[in-house]
Amino acid sequence: MADDGMLLNFEIGEAPIKPQVKFTGGRWRDRKHAERSARKNRENPWDGANGTPLANGRPSGNSDETDRVGNERPTKRQRIAAEARGEESNTNKPNTSAPKLLAYMTGKLPPGSISVAPRNGNQTARSGPVTSRLFTSNPTPKTVFEEPVVEAEPTQPSNAPLSEEAENFRALGLSGRIAQHLSSKLEMKAPTSIQKNAIPKLVEGDSDAFLQAQTGSGKTLAYLLPIVQRIMALSHNEDGTSTGIKIHRNSGLFAMILAPTRELCKQIAVVLEKLLRCAPWIVSTTVIGGESKKSEKARLRKGVNILIATPGRLTDHLDHTQVLDVGTVRWLVLDEGDRLMEMGFEDDLKTIIGKIRKEGLKTQNDEGVKLDALPQRRITVLCSATMKYIDKLGEEISLKDALEIKATSGDAGNDAEALGADSVFQAPSQLKQTYIVTAPKLRLVTLLALLKSTFARKGSVMKAIVFISCADSADFHFNLLRSAPASAASTDDRTSNTVANAAYITSPANQTITLFKLHGSLAQPVRTSTLNAFTTATDPAVLITTDISSRGLDVPAVDLVIEYDPAFSVDDHTHRIGRTARAGRPGKAVLFLQPGCEEGYVPYLKTNMSGQSADTVIQKGFITPITIPKSSTKETEAPILESEKSSMKRAEALQLHLEQRLLESDKTGSKLLDEARLAFRSHIRAYATHVKDEREFFNMEELQLGHMAKSFGLREAPSNIGGGPSRRAHKGGQQQQRGGSAPKRASRGGGGADDIPSSMAIDKDDLGAADEDAARRMKMKLKEVMGAASEFNIG
């Protein structure tokens, strides 16, 4: 065809031609934001904010640090490949990006991984992987952090045993047999302050008593030693010679000890068992929920002298176990009495006391042995570290002319009205308390940085306890931090899902850290085995638990307590931090708070606490590379970001890794994403259950749900936070936990049918087929018990 001479002339302009990029993958909203941003940059290559030209379609200006401190809400702007921006690609540079990041850089987006830049346009584009934007749009803390003051001399412990030269157990009225046993077998040379003040009065007198002392000061032995001493006096004189009276397990039930949780009952039983090795003819046992009632009845039928129980199960045995004779009972001990009242056991306590009084006091047992050496009246002993509910307990639970015995050197009063006096709890002086103000988005990486720095040196910290608000959240954090789904850390089948090797927090000095999980929704054999494994652990260990571990537990070598979720009341905070710095040992407690109203919680605690920011913790914790757990495609663990020198970038990369791990969990079958959503919902519901006096510091209206979701590895807040009840039942006849809608009821908070009132959890196996009347009574307690405190207080 001949040329007709027509000439077409198109003016292209001086701007370089930029190829069109089609964005695929990810969410529809992310693709639309990316397309809109790319189209806007092609149409207007000038920055309208300050008139500066865009370099390669992106604003030029300040560095990455502006992004971290800027308060402007960032726009969503898509990063595209270097070829699409008109840049020259460096083919000689080795490609170290992951396949997903390469797909992202070429326009294919993994779900929710759009990178954003500040709206003010003064942010320089960064090359490399997508960041998680942890350090943008965060609220500014009001607290001005000061440099920590280094103490010249270590603080003297306030709950340590007294000087051996000044005091000994023999001088307190105990027999030589007991004093020698304490010294030689238990390696206890001298008593503590509360033991010095309490033991002589309980050995010689027959008055009710209220024992108040700091956590870890030996209150358990303060009431156990007088009981054992006076029972031994029936068969042995003070010089150890026999009185000719034979006391054995069938001689009668002399003492009953009540505790709010099964774990505390087990611990009291262990202490008493060690003490009774000097008097093997005295027998003790426990009756708690989760155990076989048939075996408990068999032990009671054989005979017992000291009984340790939870109120719910003891009430059940008093109603249906005819061999349980309380006519010879001389002591009723309420350990952690304030907690018994908080958990709704008031009616059970009244029932127990009423049945004991109804039987009448026997002066001799069925064998004709006179009980002259025992108190001639029934004695009630109340133990607590706080003064809460003391007035109510004194009036309704029968504390008559009670002695108020404290760990101070002052004289104990004998006026019952003195029990209502105000008393401010003082933490052990050697306990160092600190708090960290961290934005919601930074909570998770700050916790990992704190744990990583904690175990950075070998031998500095052996055991740490992390307190979580609810059981769902404890499950999620345990599964998130464990090294692999099938870990070889546990050799016991009962602890296969509660003990594992930890990831992310290991260090070259501590390459193996054992992770434990404990909460009230676990079956009782699992709870017992897990707590025993944590107690006897010889390697560095971390226990992720709820408030079920906050009362009375004495685990050796606990050097650090972390309140990742603040306690629901000051009293709960008191007992949480009391798991460390026990019996004169040093300890440290760390409290996590969010910027804003939560910062006012520190003056409310009225304790001497030093604070630090999350940036300080992250910089210290991520100074070394982070080790990620092995996956299905990798057989070994591998460090990430070895070449990165910035701790902040390591924190961003770790957060992005966790988010992508959750998104991929559905494909691998781990269901970690579903656990994260469930944990987030339960945590928000639990946040609403703080006591009324403290809700000004924990205000739901100021809680940023989207930012809080980031701390659970989620990229957006799940819906249906205040939805219906979440029910979960255990196999093999275990208890079924019942939850409810926000704010006063929530999913999974219980500690078992005997650790909480049955209005929260009803175990048909524990109640028995003939206990319909008791079940009806428990159900009627529902509206009365579910006040400001909820299942989360005991979770």
TrEMBL record:
CDD domains: DEADc_DDX31, SF2_C_DEAD. Belongs to the DEAD box helicase family. This is ATP-dependent RNA helicase. The keyword Chaperone does not apply. Its EC number is 3.6.4.13. The Q motif is unique to and characteristic of the DEAD box family of RNA helicases and controls ATP binding and hydrolysis. The lineage of its organism: Eukaryota, Fungi, Dikarya, Ascomycota, Pezizomycotina. The keyword Ribosomal protein does not apply.
